[in-house]
Structure formats: structure tokens, C-alpha cells
Amino acid sequence: MEINRRTAQKSHKGKASVEVSPESITSSIDFNYNDFFVPVTTPVKVQAPIPEEQCEIFQWMLEEKRKLKPKNPLEKKQIDEDKAILKHFLRAKSIPKF
């Protein structure tokens, strides 16, 4: 089999390629150019920075969540999700809009 493959590859190298004239592809297709235009998006509004008092409250809530002892895996998962959200708020420059 290996020998047949090699001879087949060699035989293709020796043959001349045939030029095919390209047909007019765009003549049969009718484009609606309005579909290609992207609507202009409004710029993202910058939210006000998180007040220091709010950051302290988030920090306190995170500390309280860390003190909790979960009773089952579902409660642990919920506490972990809450802590992740609080950490996200504490790291952010402003309160994210969901």
C-alpha cells in the first residue's frame, strides 16, 4: 500500500494544472447591504466609584460569611457564591451593573 501511495503522489507532480476561468459569482447573488451595517452602540456609562462606607460594609459581610459553618454541601455552595460576589464588588472600581 505504501508504495502505491508514493507512486500516486509522484504522478500528480508531473501533470500540468488546468486553468479554469472563474465565473461571475456575484452576478447571481443579490446582497442586501443594509444587513451588513452594524448599529451604532451607545458608549458605556461609567458608574460612580463605590463609597468608602459601602466598601466597609462589603468587607464586613465577607468576614461574616467566612465565619459561617455550612451544614450541608448546598449551603456551602451558596456561601461560596455569596463570598465570590462580595469579592467581585470589593475589587471593582464601581458597582457593576447586571
Polypeptide structure, described:
By secondary structure, the protein is mainly α. Helix content is 49%, strand content 0%. It has three helices and no strands. It has helices at residues 2-14, 52-67, 73-91. The chain is elongated and about 75 Å long. The relative contact order is 0.10.
What class would the helix/strand composition place it in?
mainly alpha
Q: Give average pLDDT, whole number.
A: 76
Which radius of gyration do the C-alpha atoms yield? 32 Å
Fraction of residues in H or I helices = 40-55%
Low-confidence stretches: none
For the biggest sheet, the summary is:
none
Shape: elongated
How many strand units? 0
Count every helix, treating DSSP H or I runs of 4 or more residues as helices.
Answer: 3
- The termini sit apart by 62 Å
In N-to-C order, the SSE pattern is: HHH
Strand content bin: under 5%
